[in-house]
UniProtKB/TrEMBL annotation, chain A:
The keyword Cell membrane applies. GO terms for biological process: transmembrane transport. This is Carbohydrate ABC transporter permease. It comes from Thalassospira lohafexi. Keywords: Cell membrane, Membrane, Transmembrane, Transmembrane helix, Transport. The chain crosses the membrane at residues 12-35, 107-131, 143-166, 178-198, 219-244, 276-297. Signal peptide: none annotated. Residues 107-297 form the ABC transmembrane type-1 domain. It is found in: Cell membrane. It comes from the Bacteria. Belongs to the binding-protein-dependent transport system permease family. It holds the Pfam family BPD_transp_1. One of its GO terms (cellular component) is plasma membrane.
From TrEMBL, chain B:
This is Sugar ABC transporter permease. Signal peptide: none annotated. Keywords: Membrane, Transmembrane, Transmembrane helix, Transport. The keyword Membrane applies. It is a multi-pass membrane protein. Belongs to the binding-protein-dependent transport system permease family. It comes from Thalassospira lohafexi.
UniProtKB/TrEMBL annotation, chain C:
It comes from Thalassospira lohafexi. The keyword Transmembrane helix applies. The chain crosses the membrane at residues 15-32, 39-60. This is Uncharacterized protein. Keywords: Membrane, Transmembrane, Transmembrane helix.
Length: 312, 315, 62
């Protein structure tokens, strides 16, 4: 490290470090609390004072994935020995498992809709971004602004006509409808981000390829696409995270078959009272993948949140 | 890029297709590439928008399909713009908007300033701080209700620990005076990293040579801060403020899960109010006019935002 | 300041965009201020004017 007059002093660094670490600890405390609550027993989760040290239990996870009914001791006796470890856990609470819960389906819906819309969005977005980056498109600035402004729209305000349109087309509460909708919402982000990434690839590579006898299409997918791979991957992760997290459209336009996890998780209730460990378990399974993706994305985070305007 | 001989590519592509593609001008390729995107956006964004504008001049109610839809002109707009309940909703939104922006800018800028001191491990801690803003607001909002529980909630416990107040004596989301602050705290926790990241980019864009020159001129650190740092970061800060402003103006998911608009109407932000009008009372025409008002406001702010965006891009 | 007025008179993009932005900002403040309901009533038309104006003037030459 070179020493210059602008290099902060050692003491300053220490002081800054301590404050930032302090803030980071405060900021992840609620997240750690969610993860910890998922492994508590229902009684531990609502004890006072809040328990930091507790006996880990899988009750939350068992309750998350199963539907249970309360049973009397006689009924439990009549059932005989539990067959599996999760049945044992349910029995210990005085309940019998009556079937799997719908969390699995909802989670699967989130995966289908998330990946489906991301894939579609990347195909359309890469093509459009390439065209905006390389060709003279009439009214380019207006189109780009129009594309961006579609993302700024309040979802509830757009939801009224979309609800009516989907109802007429039979797309309400279907995977296809949600995939198309999320693709449309994400397109703005992917076009703007990818345009930034493609702008950075020197035009000379393609020109060389064109002179070598490649067609435009070949130059696009043999020269530009491989070079833009990191950009495309990080844009895809951004689109995926958005579709994964989306709540407003999901709660208004889906109710059963195509409902995703975010509208479902808050509705989880236990047998008699809110089952916080189950909610926490559901939230943990849902949130942790996003945290992993955030770590993967960290170099491109800033671009993603500013539509590609700020490039570090 | 792999070096593929052109003959091989030519052989791999059927000749007729290759010829046809080669024959396409750049202009037509541009259109083929852009058209699907524009078409999808027209179908899912613009067509519904036009429909909303049309509905806003009618008394349509989608839950009564048999009733005749009448043209009512500007009546919906007149009623909304003279309704003091909606005006109150706007003020609840304003309270949320102003305080979240103030807190996020202050904390976010300060954090960015500290991180820019380049202490060891700053990358790791930055990533940790960024986590909340990437998560699903609805799920997080739902979980904050648990943290806010009187007696058993972690938040109440921590406050009680430091101030000595009885943790069962106050309820952040049940109290009329505290609920507006409950949503401000949760939103600040979630979105401060956003402002921080943008400020950090601003700080890192300042070339060291400017500070070195100021140092040679014997300018004090304090003076350097106000005459170099702040003006140079300002465009970035503008960007962050506008974006958070737009996002929080239309805030729905986090708050609806956290308080559901209650108690009373103290945290009924405009989007929550609109959702009730449109999807619970089913006053489609009326709520369409409401939606158009929000549209135009957001659209206006978005055009300023794009201007700010281009300003930052030039740096 | 004279540059600004000059730009307005010669229909230049920069100063006109400033005027439109100011109008939009004014409309948003009027929409959410707690002082007078009359201001709230006329907020929408102000924002609308500003927005339409912005779209038009952004096509003026630099």
């Amino acid at each position: 490290m070179s020493f210059s007059i602008t290099e902060p002093k050692k003491g300053t660094k220490w002081f800054a470090g301590v404050l930032v670490v302090g803030y980071a600890l405060i900021t992840i405390a609620p997240l750690l609390w969610i993860i910890a609550t998922g492994f508590k027993s229902p009684t531990d989760s609502i004890s006072y004072p809040p328990k930091v040290i507790f006996d880990p239990s899988l009750e939350g996870y068992v309750n998350l994935f199963t539907d249970r009914t309360r049973a009397t001791d006689d009924m439990l006796e009549a059932k005989g020995e539990p067959q599996t470890w999760y049945e044992q856990i349910a029995r210990d609470q005085g309940t019998i498992i009556s079937g799997p819960s719908r969390y699995g389906e909802r989670f699967l819906n989130s995966i289908i809709i998330g990946f489906g819309s991301t894939a579609l969005c990347m195909v359309l977005g890469t093509a459009a971004a390439y065209a905006f980056s390389r060709f003279r498109v009439p009214l380019k600035d207006d189109l780009l602004f129009f594309i961006l402004s579609t993302r700024m729209m309040p979802p509830i305000a757009v939801a009224i006509p979309i609800f009516l349109m989907f109802r007429n087309l039979g797309l309400n509460d279907t995977h296809l409808g949600m995939i198309l909708l999320y693709t449309a919402v994400n397109l703005s982000l992917s076009v703007w981000l990818l345009k930034g990434f493609i702008d950075e690839i020197p035009v000379e590579y393609e020109e060389a390829a064109l002179i070598d006898g490649y067609t435009r299409f070949q130059a696009f997918y043999k020269v530009v696409l491989p070079q833009a791979a990191t950009g495309i991957a990080s844009t895809a992760i951004f689109c995926l995270i958005f579709a994964w997290n989306e709540y407003a459209f999901a709660v208004l336009l889906t109710s059963g078959t195509a409902q995703t996890a975010p509208p479902f998780i808050p509705t989880i209730i236990g047998v008699g009272g809110k089952d916080w460990p189950a909610v926490a378990a559901g939230a943990t399974i849902f949130l942790v993948p996003v945290m992993v993706f955030t770590i993967l994305l960290r170099k491109h985070l800033l671009r993603g949140i500013t539509f590609g305007a700020v490039r570090k | 890029m792999k070096n593929i001989p052109i003959e091989k590519i030519a052989a791999a592509t059927p000749e007729t297709v290759a010829q046809r593609i080669r024959g396409l001008s750049d202009r037509s390729i541009a259109w083929i590439f852009v058209a699907p995107t524009i078409f999808l956006l027209l179908a899912i964004n613009i067509f519904p928008l036009i429909w909303t504008i049309w509905l806003s001049f009618t008394n349509s109610r989608v839950n009564r399909p048999n009733r005749d839809v009448e043209w009512v002109g500007l009546r919906n707009y007149e009623r909304i713009l003279s309704d003091s309940d909606i005006w109150n909703t706007m003020q609840a939104t304003a309270h949320f908007l102003i305080w979240t922006i103030v807190l996020q800018v202050l904390i976010g800028f300060f954090l960015a300033f500290l991180i820019n001191k380049k202490f060891r491990g700053n990358d790791l801690w930055t990533t940790i701080i960024v986590f909340p803003m990437m998560l699903s607001p609805a799920v997080v909002g739902n979980f904050w209700t648990f943290l806010y529980q009187p007696q058993i909630g972690l938040f109440n416990y921590v406050i009680a620990f430091f101030t000595g107040v009885d943790p069962a004596s106050f309820s952040m989301i049940g109290d009329v005076n505290l609920a507006p602050w409950a949503i401000v705290i949760a939103d600040t926790w979630m979105w401060t990293p956003f402002v921080m990241l943008i400020c950090l980019a601003g700080l890192r864009s300042i070339p060291n040579s400017i500070y070195e020159a100021a140092e040679c001129d014997r300018a004090s650190k304090w003076r350097q801060f106000w005459t170099i740092t702040i003006p140079m970061v300002l465009p970035f800060l503008m960007l962050a403020v506008l974006f958070r402003g737009i996002e929080n103006f239309k805030m729905f998911d986090l708050v609806v899960q956290l308080t559901g608009g209650g108690p009373g109407n103290t945290t009924t932000l405009t989007s929550i109010d609109l959702k009730r009008e449109a999807f619970e009372k089913w006053r489609t025409g009326y709520s369409s006019a409401y939606a158009v008002i929000l549209f135009v406001t957001v659209f206006g702010l978005a055009s300023i935002y794009v201007k700010a965006l281009n300003k930052v891009k030039e740096r | 300041m004279s540059d600004f007025i000059n730009g307005l008179l010669r229909l230049r993009r920069g100063p006109w965009e400033m005027v439109a932005s100011a109008l939009i900002a004014l409309g948003v403040v009027m929409l959410m201020q707690p002082f007078a309901i009359t201001l709230y009533t006329y907020s929408f038309i102000t924002t609308l004017t500003g927005t339409v104006m912005f779209i038009v003037v952004s096509h003026f030459p630099e």
